[in-house]
Amino acid sequence: MNEAKYSVLLFLSDIQQVRASELRQYIQSGRKVYLLTFDDPEELLEDPILHEAHKKELLQVSVVRYAPEWEQAWAVIEDGKVNDSQLLDYLDQNSAFNKGQYELEHAYDRGHYIVKAGAGTGKTTTMINRIMFLKHMQGDLDLRSVVMITFTNEAAANMRSKLLEKLKNYYDLTKDKKYLEWMEEAGWMFIGTIHSFAREFLVTEGQTLGFSRSMEVRSYKHERRRLIEKYIDQFSVECPEIYERFRHIPHYQIIRSFIAMIEQLHNKSVSVEAIGQLHFGADSHGFHEFADYVIKHVIRELDEQKKTEETLEISDLISRLASLKNLSSDQLRLSIRYLFVDEFQDTDESQAAFISWLAEKYGCQLFAVGDVKQSIYRFRGADYTAFLQLQQQLETANQVYKEYSLQKNYRSAPTLLTQLNVLFQKWTKIVEKFPFDDTDKLIPAQEESCEEGLVALDMDDATLKYLLRRLYREDVAVLVRSNREVLEMVDRIENMGFFCEAAVSGTFYRSLPVREFYLLIRRFTHPYVPKDRYLFHQSSYGENGLTIAKVLSAYTPETSFILDLLQTFDNMGRWECEWNMSSAIAVLQNIIDEVRPHEVFRLRYYNQLRSRFPDGDVEMQRKEAIAKMKEYKMNLDRLIFFIKKEFGDFHASFYDLEKFLSIKMATDTSENERKVTSDVNHRIKVMTVHKAKGLEFDYVLMPLTRHPFIKQGKTDVILISDRAQWKLGYSIDWGDMEFKNNYYNEYAGSEKKEMIGEEVRLLYVALTRARKAVYVNSSSQMNPYQAQCWSDLLESGEMLVV
Ligand SMILES: Nc1ncnc2c1ncn2[C@@H]1O[C@H](COP(=O)(O)OP(=O)(O)OP(=O)(O)O)[C@@H](O)[C@H]1O
């Protein structure tokens, strides 16, 4: 046995030389084993402990292609301390072993690491493994001094669960309690978005950096809108002759245009001072003067307000931090030893500056990973040159860094990857902003084959139905461009009798249990509004016994016949007596307990399914009805929890609740619906490509591929940085009035190329999510001349690799 603390790599040409007892010993003492041999390890893996370790990735076995010159060789490498780099090259080229990942995981150098690597090459996996390495090697490393920045909250949750799962695997195999302690520590480790990190950072370091103790980070969305209105009015008084030209335009349209401009400035974190110097160019209607006046006044007043209220928006914080160059590291209190950043390609300019600022000031080791070809957040200010900026900033600060790239792809089947490589290379001929050369090629690491690959076909309803019928029990995702298309596809698929899991954010307050609960409240606050009463009657709280035929036959213009009709079905009256005795929340809770709306819903939903799709799979329909019932209950419980949190147990009246809920339903787009995760493998996932980033599925379907890349919006804004000076280009279309300023005319051409580049990167992300095959709606040959929509860039895999 050797002294390794974290891992042992064994290369033994003959598997007979491997002793299972030795491997067991390594694993049971928490050391990961890489085993490489010429032979099939099947027999060895019959050992139950080794089998389990293999499953849990503590034992990685790779079969190496035979080469006589290595026949006599054997090697034991402890904790990545490599003497013979040639051997690793040989193993890398002749097995699934990945030298790049191995070196990054076990890196000892003190400098920073920048990893640019294609899809599915194990960037996320390597980061988790590196944390394991650091923790095993440095006994005193507290995971709380490791910071992991991810791009979205979902990615953060995903990363934390992967880390915890890894630690649990170690515990399961070793039964060493230290792993339980590490799991607890990992629970405290910061894993989150750059915005939530900035918030946490402010709490600890704010005062030292000159921010007041009560400084808070919040959003100023509503104030911004109010101020825009104020300064439009003021402009109309001060410059009536210009305003006159826009008087007939609805106010909300003008406001929207200004919001679009301010959002762009915000995305790029342009400082207040720089906005003071911003150029708006000129247009034929003189709107540039209007915009200059309103935007500069709004930003100035907002800045004053933030100073008085001692608040910041996140972009202010980041732009102010980046300017604190002279701060000494001794003044900082947070302990950060390692800083990991995932999806680095999607950081914007000020975020990249903040990250290099952190690396320099805290003296921590930065490990930034990403893929320029997957940069898809340009609309939010992300800049695909972020890596370049980071490198320049590190160099200016005399920081040493090493660059790595990874090319072996573990996700997709070889057939698919070979086709995709050819396709991506073809794109470079028609898309200027999508560079793809030999170093970008994805090298298949999987051996298992799936011959389907990339399939282009006309995906009309009949074809889609055929595909879904074939694949619905597999891991399938339908990927589309926008949230609107998610809903369109869910509708289309559910009308075919299949079930979907739609990933759309912020829909909690518009979900069925919330809407029906609102109708229940309205039943008491406005019992005589016929429309609401009828909807309530149809809801899971109502009897739902009144048919349209009955309504029509009872019609009379003289009386409010509908209320009379409904009265015969209504048994809510008795609850009204309880009003005076109990609180509104208690009455509503009693109704829920008695009616059990989730069960009523399940029964009705199931019956509906049976009658709509009598030939459908009964078992699947039953499963779906149960899943929907559970979700109904989970979300209703959550609503009650929110209400109690807002009002306490007793004090709210029905009217208070109605007001609270109607505002939430109209405005809240941040709360997500709860979904069940188990027993729903019959559901087809439908999501946008943005949501699918970082995820993988066996099959990817892309039925909507014909949306044009360039869509003229009501207001298009381009922000141009020109030698420390910002210029704002705009194109405005308000229906009966259209104009563009000179900057827009000047830069629209290059902006168009950038937009196409972004759409093509989206398609790259979508296609590389699949493990086995991709089905796309397209003709079998791509358009060799132009790329106006995704289908122009797609073709059948068979055409690609002959
Ligand atoms: N060395 C390896 N051996 C076997 N499987 C691996 C290895 N590295 C990664 N994988 C697997 O390959 C898949 C892709 O890995 P991962 O998600 O880490 O890649 P990624 O580079 O972050 O991908 P993307 O950028 O496309 O989101 C995962 O299923 C992962 O478990």
TrEMBL record:
Signal peptide: none annotated. PROSITE patterns: UVRD_HELICASE_ATP_BIND. Residues 96-413 form the UvrD-like helicase ATP-binding domain. Its EC number is 5.6.2.4. Keywords: ATP-binding, Helicase, Hydrolase, Isomerase, Nucleotide-binding. It comes from the Bacteria. It catalyses: Couples ATP hydrolysis with the unwinding of duplex DNA by translocating in the 3'-5' direction; ATP + H2O = ADP + phosphate + H(+). It is an enzyme of class 5 (isomerase). ATP binds at A117, G118, A119, G120, T121, G122, K123, T124. CDD domains: DEXQc_UvrD. Belongs to the helicase family. UvrD subfamily. PANTHER family: DNA 3'-5' HELICASE, UVRD / RECB / PCRA DNA HELICASE FAMILY MEMBER. This is DNA 3'-5' helicase. It comes from Geobacillus proteiniphilus.
